[in-house]
Design a protein that fits this description.
With about 290 residues, this protein is α/β, with parallel strands linked by helices. The protein has a domain of about 180 residues: NAD(P)-binding Rossmann-like Domain (Rossmann fold). It has 13 helices and eleven strands. The strands form three sheets. It has a seven-stranded parallel beta sheet, sandwiched between helices. α4 runs parallel beside α5.
């Protein structure tokens, strides 16, 4: 049996959808059962557990062999994911697959509490005795969903990168596709780290794709990391989240997300990665 912890988020939802398409009905470990049924379907197999509640997690993971873990970025993620790991071990699970940060992000001395969290979680995971697999997808295309209002109302895409700066963007649905197939047969993947991305593009080209699909000119506006930081602070975003997104933008502008690696997607999923055009077409209603 397979469990997906964090099943209602973008990535978790993609894993569940892929598993269902592959004939599986995973246990979806969630906090909010109503939201879960809304986004995962009325037939979803749901177990309710807060990530801070070890006993509830143990109950949810009873009889599960493989666990997929993805949690939202937050300062408590180390405790949350260690709780999942402890509950998985107690329940007798043999494998744990997690979505980690990129190799430049998940470091002990990261300026971001999220980056430090990824590093601490993975150090513990590697020494736990469970069969672990770590996925490191590139910068997500889904980050532009935060720009939906700007694209819809102002016909502008605003990001902290120069217009033609190369970035290997990844659709979370490719992460879901990779993760689901590993969960089906985890043994050959145990102890491996998979770094993967979509094909290289840039935000100028991404804006052009929006223009073509939406049938109107979408202008790309590249701002500096500092301008982006001020804009986030003006929206009263939490300090830890601003610091994390600034860290990501600094690393990205230094080339951390520019190296294309589509091979794991092609090898494991047996298809090419999703393109920015497919992304925009599939989410058109949010931007039109």
């Amino acid at each position: 049996m397979i469990a997906v912890v964090g099943a209602t988020g973008n990535t978790g939802r993609a894993v569940v959808k892929e598993l269902k398409a592959l004939g599986q009905n995973p246990v979806c470990v969630v906090r909010n059962p109503d939201k879960a049924r809304e986004v995962l379907g009325a037939d979803a197999k749901i177990a309710v557990a807060e990530l801070a509640d070890r006993a509830a997690l143990e109950k949810a993971l009873q009889g599960v062999e493989s666990v997929f873990v993805v949690t939202g970025h937050n300062p408590g993620m180390v405790e949350q994911q260690n709780n999942v790991l402890d509950a998985a071990l107690k329940a007798g699970a043999k494998y744990l697959v997690r979505v980690g940060g990129g190799r430049a992000v998940a470091v002990a001395d990261s300026e971001s509490v999220v980056g430090r969290g990824h590093y601490a979680i993975e150090q513990r995971l590697r020494g736990s005795g469970i069969g672990w697999v770590i996925l490191r997808p590139g910068l997500f295309m889904q980050n532009v969903l935060a720009q939906a209002a700007s694209i819809k109302n102002d016909s502008k895409l605003v990001m902290p990168y120069p217009k033609d700066f190369p970035l290997a963007l990844t659709d979370v649905r490719d992460t879901g596709a990779v993760g689901a197939r590993i969960l089906l047969d985890p043994a050959p993947h145990a102890g491996k780290v998979y770094e993967f991305t979509g094909t290289t593009t840039n935000y100028g080209d991404f804006a052009e794709v929006f223009s073509q699909v939406l049938g109107r000119k979408i202008t790309y506006l590249g701002v500096t990391v500092e301008q982006n930081e001020q804009a986030m602070k003006a929206r009263n975003m939490p300090d830890w989240l601003v610091a994390h997104l600034v860290t990501i933008a600094k690393l990205g502008n230094a080339g951390a997300f520019s190296n294309e690696n589509t091979k794991p997607i092609r090898d494991i999923v047996k298809r090419a990665p999703l393109t920015t055009r497919q992304f925009v077409e599939d989410h058109k209603a949010l931007f039109a």
